[in-house]
Amino acid sequence: MTRAGRRAVGLRILPGSMTVLAICAGLTSIKFALDAEPHLAMAMIAAAAILDGLDGRVARLLDAASRMGEEIDSLADAVNFGVAPAVVIYVTMLPTSPAGWIAALLYAVCIVLRLARFNALLDDTAQPAYTREYFVGMPAPAGALAVIGPLAAAMQFDTGWWTSEWFVCAWLVFCSALVVSRIPMRKMHAVAVPPNLAALLLAAVVVVAGAALLFPYILILVLIAAYLIHIPFGVRGHRWVAAHPETWEDKPHEWRAARRAIRRAQPGPARRAIRRAQPNRRSMTRLGLRKPGR
């Protein structure tokens, strides 16, 4: 085999190697949790998330994507973002709680179900093109980040209501529901940034990198809050595109212009005037009232 051929083979196994390293990081997070080192456990989950975000892009860049690589990546996600965060949270925050173990099992199983549905949707060619830019339910890496939120709050602010058994169990159930839900959530790499904001984006990356070193737990909580806040906007955008599929290829500013045009075309003031002039039938029915003579 020539030197160029050996180099090509070596590069083609790079994505798979990154996936294996991600699995090692996820499993090592469990080891650190058992050793009572939660900060290192969280760091390993973050490392697994970073490797998970890079291996697919490296595979596409090197044209090294394969069916086996896709299956390994899916199994790695089940371990890194399902099993590992569930065990870490249980060991560090709910070690003697039967309800906590049930909630941890629920989350891990929901991640597996979410990944199975994701793989099934990949083979569905009947879906509209715009659905490829949306996740169905919370993606596994975001779910893992959300699940460790109470642990990050405990590391930053010590004990409080966020460390209580009932809250941690309820939070696990809430994250499990988001993971298996049908809520459309916009993929982050699908968000386009205007060229005039590129410098601002780079500055934001610098701020995030600095915060990751100086205030890692605060950064985790901020990212969780930002992701939860963005969900209604993703749902709104998905509904808009589903109702106006012809605008899918348009740019974001064209979407906003189209929305404004439609709002201006609708007789909003006239409709509100009619609504004020007529009695609220639903409220009257709820209160058991009726007009005289009826």
Automatic annotation (TrEMBL):
Principal location: membrane
Q: Which UniProt keywords apply?
A: Lipid biosynthesis, Lipid metabolism, Membrane, Phospholipid biosynthesis, Phospholipid metabolism, Transferase, Transmembrane, Transmembrane helix
Q: Which Gene3D superfamilies match?
A: 1.20.120.1760
**Which Gene Ontology CC terms are recorded?**
endomembrane system; membrane
Quote the EC number: 2.7.8.8
Q: Which reaction does it catalyse?
A: a CDP-1,2-diacyl-sn-glycerol + L-serine = a 1,2-diacyl-sn-glycero-3-phospho-L-serine + CMP + H(+)
Which InterPro entries would you find in this protein's record?
CDP-alcohol_PTase-I, CDP-diaglyc--ser_O-PTrfase, CDP-OH_P_trans, CDP-OH_PTrfase_TM_dom, CDP_ALCOHOL_P_TRANSF_CS
PANTHER family (alphabetical): CDP-DIACYLGLYCEROL--GLYCEROL-3-PHOSPHATE 3-PHOSPHATIDYLTRANSFERASE-RELATED, CDP-DIACYLGLYCEROL--SERINE O-PHOSPHATIDYLTRANSFERASE
Q: Any idea what this protein is called? A: CDP-diacylglycerol--serine O-phosphatidyltransferase
Q: What is the lineage of its organism?
A: Bacteria, Bacillati, Actinomycetota, Actinomycetes, Mycobacteriales
